[in-house]
């Protein structure tokens, strides 16, 4: 018996030792496995005609072999486990395969060599084709460009320092399904270049809505911006950050446990149900904000209700409801059934209805709208209708409303919501730019600025600093940097006035003094009531024109509209000269030139007369006999600014008084 127990003990020890050995061996094996960054993967586009880098990780001292295009490259990992090799330049071609071997082997398929662009900015660069699928339905349906590829980097942040790796991602080609997730601006940019030169185009898209430029810069790049650097240092202090995170978590937990206060959801018969009988509802118009219709300063939940008579021909088939844009969140119910919802204000509401939702005759439409700040309701000048079986029903007009909940103003230190990490200096650079930088690229596309419009003077310094920062990090010389000047936005002011958005456009215009940069002017492509205008095609194609001139040295291309060059006072007139006049200056609507203002030494601007004389514009006003300064399209929304060149490209806004 004792002997049996002894054998059992020895067997147990042997098994334990064997398990430990196998664990250690498997751990060593796992560490030795060569691993690649997300970018180095199937379908990738490598930069043609350039030395390109391929890198990854394995065990320290591991030998790695890379075979590509008939050549063999070898590397040994350093103490940090990282390895890197540099491929010889190759011409635009493909598909290639790449074999990477260490203790394991990885094969990468369907590799192209072409031109690679790093695409970045905020929401107008984020906006995917799917968000504009009505305007660009045909472009999506006919997308058949296997040599245009897009790598989308999910939003991620890091306050501690530059990261080594990106979150999960993959290369996708432009086909009717995958193109929906392409940046619309970037896709139209790539498509125009591909159609012109038949060279594969790779797009690496790191863009996040609502973010300031400082979030996209490295700590070194912010060295001349003391306030931003102080914030970077503060955010590294866990004694500062952690209590804020704990308070934010506690606040979120408390809010999630609060009972629902909306009467429309707590009533025994909910306000969207078919059995509900409305009482005490008042008239209101759609579209429109409720603050403009007799409701003062309300943040809360407001319910809208209307009975819509639907003809039989529009029933029994799939339908679509267009509800424009709603500030901020909404849920749509039809005949008691929830058929769609959106949680924030910017997307246009396009809700698809399966067959059977709409009934012949009376249908009850109910929309619950939540607003958290500013004016709430339905944005004007957007589509509001039901579409089915090639027929439409207008949803604009008089509805009834009732307030379901009133949100109390938030009080306290302001830290209960935590830190908006994606808006912190360096947060997006560290997580979404730094891991890309070893990848060889052709150039950079940038569309951002809306979030910095509150401080355009600072932006005038930040944009050139960003360019210098990224060029320094990529170590590819003066990388071409193409960017978008902000379009028209907000209400039209028909008097000469000051404008932060005009100052932001000036900051972009002056950044052209940085070598190897180009700018797309989009002054007429915006919408007064939408910071995310629908026209993304012209933006992308104007960036492509800029690339044709700057990067591809296409001398036949007129890449920009007129840009102010100089001003000369001649008696009671000012004569303006421009570059980029192309085939000549024109008024694009054949009307008198508009949005020119003139002033004397007092800088009191009045509207001016202006006419084209050859390649110059002459500006004057009887009210200003001794003029000194001119402004053009100097406003948030200079609707109808009409100075163009004959190639159809608009002049950039400018001023001479600064």
Automatic annotation (TrEMBL):
Pfam families recorded: SASA
InterPro entries per record: Galactose-bd-like_sf (IPR008979), Ig-like_fold (IPR013783), SASA (IPR005181), SGNH_hydro_sf (IPR036514), SIAE (IPR039329)
In what residue span(s) does the Sialate O-acetylesterase domain sit? Answer: 114-228, 424-547
Entry keywords, A to Z: Hydrolase
What superkingdom does the record give?
Bacteria
Q: PANTHER family from the xrefs?
A: SIALATE O-ACETYLESTERASE
Q: What is this protein called?
A: Sialate O-acetylesterase
| Species of origin | Pontibacter toksunensis
Question: Source taxonomy lineage?
Answer: Bacteria, Pseudomonadati, Bacteroidota, Cytophagia, Cytophagales
């Amino acid at each position: 018996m004792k002997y049996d127990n002894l054998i059992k003990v020895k067997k147990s020890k042997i098994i334990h030792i064997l398990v430990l050995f196998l664990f250690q061996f498997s751990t060593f094996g796992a560490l030795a496995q060569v691993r690649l960054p997300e970018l180095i993967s199937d379908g990738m586009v490598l930069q043609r005609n350039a030395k390109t880098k391929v890198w990854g990780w394995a065990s320290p001292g591991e030998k790695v072999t890379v075979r590509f295009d008939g050549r063999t490259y070898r590397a040994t990992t350093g103490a940090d486990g990282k390895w890197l090799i540099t491929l010889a330049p190759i011409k635009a071609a493909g598909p290639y395969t790449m074999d990477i071997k260490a203790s394991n082997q990885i094969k990468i398929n369907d590799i192209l060599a072409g031109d690679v662009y790093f695409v970045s900015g905020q929401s107008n660069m984020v906006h995917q084709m799917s968000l504009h699928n009505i305007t660009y339905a045909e472009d999506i349906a006919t997308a058949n460009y296997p040599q245009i590829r897009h790598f989308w980097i999910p939003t991620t942040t890091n306050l501690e320092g530059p990261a080594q790796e990106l979150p999960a991602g993959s290369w996708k080609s432009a086909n009717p399904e995958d193109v929906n997730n392409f940046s619309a601006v970037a896709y139209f940019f790539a498509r125009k270049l591909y159609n012109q030169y038949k060279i594969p185009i790779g797009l690496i898209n790191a863009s996040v809505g609502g973010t300031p430029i400082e979030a996209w810069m490295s700590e070194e790049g912010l060295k001349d911006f003391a306030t931003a650097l102080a914030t970077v240092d503060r955010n590294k202090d866990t004694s500062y950050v952690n209590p804020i995170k704990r308070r934010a978590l506690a606040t979120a937990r408390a809010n999630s446990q609060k009972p629902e206060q909306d009467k429309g959801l707590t009533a025994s018969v909910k306000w969207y149900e078919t059995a509900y009988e409305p009482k005490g509802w008042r008239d209101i118009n759609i579209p429109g904000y409720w603050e403009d219709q007799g409701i003062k300063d309300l943040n809360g939940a407001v319910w809208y209700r209307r009975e819509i008579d639907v003809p039989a021909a529009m029933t029994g088939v799939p339908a679509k409801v267009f509800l424009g844009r709603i500030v901020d969140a909404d849920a749509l119910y039809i005949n008691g059934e929830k058929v769609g919802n959106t949680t924030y204000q910017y997307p246009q509401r396009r809700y698809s209805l399966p067959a059977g939702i709409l009934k012949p005759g009376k249908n009850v439409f109910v929309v619950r709208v939540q607003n958290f700040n500013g004016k709430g309701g339905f944005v004007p000048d957007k589509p509001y209708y039901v579409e089915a079986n090639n027929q439409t029903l207008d949803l604009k007009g008089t509805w009834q409303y009732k307030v379901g909940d009133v949100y109390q103003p938030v009080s306290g230190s302001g830290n209960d919501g935590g830190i908006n990490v994606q808006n912190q200096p360096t947060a997006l650079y560290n997580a979404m730019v730094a891991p890309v930088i070893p990848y060889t690229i052709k150039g950079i596309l940038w569309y951002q600025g809306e979030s910095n419009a509150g401080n355009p003077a600072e932006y005038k310094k930040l944009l050139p600093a960003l360019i210098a920062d990224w060029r320094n990090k990529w170590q590819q010389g003066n990388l071409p940097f193409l960017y978008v000047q902000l379009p028209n936005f907000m209400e039209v002011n028909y008097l000469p006035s000051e404008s932060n958005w005009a100052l932001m456009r000036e900051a972009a215009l002056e950044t052209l003094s940085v070598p190897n940069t180009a700018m797309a002017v989009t002054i007429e492509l915006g919408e007064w009531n939408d910071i995310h205008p629908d026209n993304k095609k012209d933006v992308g194609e104007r960036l492509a024109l800029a690339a044709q001139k700057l990067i591809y040295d296409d001398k036949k291309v007129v890449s920009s509209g007129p840009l102010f060059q100089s001003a000369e006072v001649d008696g009671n007139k000012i004569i303006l000269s421009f570059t980029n006049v192309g085939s000549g200056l024109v008024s694009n609507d054949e009307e008198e030139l508009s949005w020119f203002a003139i002033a004397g030494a007092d800088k009191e601007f009045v509207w001016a007369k202006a006419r084209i004389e050859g390649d110059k514009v002459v500006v004057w006003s009887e009210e200003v006999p001794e003029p000194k300064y001119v402004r053009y399209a100097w406003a948030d929304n200079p609707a109808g600014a009409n100075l163009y060149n004959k190639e159809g490209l608009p002049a950039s806004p400018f001023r001479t008084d600064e």
